[in-house]
Amino acid sequence: MNKRIKAGCLILSMLIVLTACSSGLTSGQKKSVLDPKNPVSITLWHYYVGANKIALETAVEQFNKSIGLEKGVIVNAVAKGSIAELEKAVTDSAKGVINSDPMPDLFSSYPDKALEIDQLGKICDLNDYFSEDDQKRYVAEFLNDGKFDGNRLLSIPIVKSTELLYVNDTAWNDFAAATGFNRQDLTTWEGIYQVAKAYYQWTDAQTPETAWDGKSFMGVDSVGNFIIIANKQLGVEIIDGKNEQTVLNHEALKKIFDFYYGGMSLGYLNAIGKFRSDDIKAGDLAAYVGSSSGAAYFPTWIEKNNAQSPIDFLALAYPVFKNGTATAIQQGAGMSVAKSTPENQEGAVLFLKWFTAQEQNIPFAMTTGYLPVETDAYTNTEFNTSLESLRTGDSTEKNVAAVYDIALNQIMKSNTYASKPFNGSYNVRTILEKSLTDIAKQGSQQTAILKEQGMSEQEILENLNMNARFDEWLASIQTQLESLEISYVEE
Predict the structure, then answer these.
(1) What is the mean pLDDT of residues 289-300?
(2) What family does this chain come from, according to its entry (predicted)?
(3) Please, are residues 232 and 417 in contact by the beta-carbon 8 Å criterion?
């Protein structure tokens, strides 16, 4: 059975036996406007795919048959494609773009998008529906992602994730045995760069008749996250929501640039497929940094000599720059409620409270490696039972369990970070990511020509002129920020 369908079936069976529901309104709030004799239809837009889409649709069906039927609410979940496609659809609807769909009642939303839609006057302050007691149920750091202007609550957390270092342990053990590197070398970005360089040279030496044909060691799934978190590790909030500006710290950005541009140019790092897990499966990478929610997609085998070769899985904590503070991303879209009629707003909130309650949220979150959002979920018997089941399951399930052990430690006990957005910060993130990936691609193309000319690594680095390329990257960022009238400061 397909693993994603299997996961959906397991979740369906878990949801069927769960009957606990949250009430629609909290104590002290005004009388409900919902009427079971005249049910309201709630449209929910989301970006989930695969097992998560199945899990959401299953939960919606269960809601509609239980508390939704009792209170008079029918939820219709609509997949709008990728997060980027969803955000465009929401923005177009909020702005009334010609031929856009009507605004949904409820939609998945990252903080910067929630802030943007709020500034258009289109979403509810959920403090009107979630009392202080309601809000105390959630992990504080998760709930705070949706708070703005002191205390305006624009979104409710659904699930969260962090990022980890994923490694093909089979390839790593072969390399480590031959070269003497160990897992401690994978704890810092500087150590990873040295490992990646040695890995390239080690694989290159296996075919001495062909120069410069080594294999790349590592990739980065989200370059935007890497830039933001690396800055934070080095003491800089590059997206400074408090002061509504971008902070361009030259020292921090240079370290980030040298690692990524240098590694990508020389082939020590790479990004080939749509996702880095695809590159692992193809044998093009041995490791990558990616979301804990992607654990179920890490391959259990790779293509080798036209055959499937099984591989072991290793998950490690998110790397840190030397002398920096160990910090990893905290991420995951919440859900926002659009301003509409009192009935539709209350119906959307009713679903949110039900869906984020432990009974529903735990099985949904644990489909692939997301983290539940209620504080008490982590001491819930259901959570620990599910985790034990994963630990004794098939290879993919064991991979997910291994990720939970690290992700929980990062989220609950270590330093995690989510930048506080401001008007235009979504564009800042896009500029940072695209500008670095574009210049790194240029560096890789230039290096390919220099390699063909028989140059050594040192000669290539001299020709690349890293300092000049860094200045070029920084100037590109500044030009784009200025064109969008986004404030920035240099340090």
Answers:
(1) 89
(2) Belongs to the bacterial solute-binding protein 1 family.
(3) yes
What is the pLDDT at residue 360?
A: 92
* Amino acid symbol at 276: R
Q: Identity (one letter) of the amino acid at 418?
A: A
What order do you get walking across the sheet with 163-168 strand by strand?
218-220, 287-291, 163-168, 313-316
- List Cβ<8 Å contacts ≥24 apart for 434-437: 435/473, 435/476, 435/477, 435/480, 436/223, 436/227, 436/256, 436/257, 436/260, 436/261, 436/473, 437/223, 437/271
CB-based contacts of 465, cutoff 8 Å, min separation 6:
none
Q: Is 289 helix (H, G, I), strand (E, B) or coil?
A: strand
Residue found by looking up tokens 């590159």 in the block: 279
Helical segments of 31-139, H only: 50-65, 67-71, 83-95, 111-119, 132-136
Give the mean pLDDT of 354-366: 92
Query: How many angstroms from the chain centroid is the CA of residue 237?
Result: 18
Q: How far apart are CA 175 and CA 151, in angstroms?
A: 51
Q: What global pTM score does this model have?
A: 0.87
CB distance 228 to 421 below 8 Å: no
How many Cβ atoms from other residues are within 10 Å of residue 217's Cβ?
30
- Give dist(CA 248, CA 254) in Å, integer: 10
Name the nearest CA neighbour of 254 among 194, 317, 189, 197: 189
Closest CA to 87 of 112, 122, 55: 112
DSSP codes, 297-326:
GS-SEEEETTEEEE--EEEEPPPB-TTS--
| Bigger pLDDT: 304 vs 214 | 214
Q: Where in the chain is the domain with CATH 3.40.190.10?
A: 3-160+332-391, 163-329+419-490
Overall average pLDDT of the 452-458 stretch:
89
Phi-psi region for residue 485, left (φ > 0), alpha (ψ -120 to 50) or beta?
Answer: left
Specify the pLDDT at position 6. 41
Q: Which fold has domain 163-329+419-490?
A: D-Maltodextrin-Binding Protein; domain 2 (3.40.190)
Q: Which residues pair with 76 in a beta bridge?
A: 43
pLDDT at 28 over 50: no
> What CATH number is given for 3-160+332-391 in this structure?
3.40.190.10
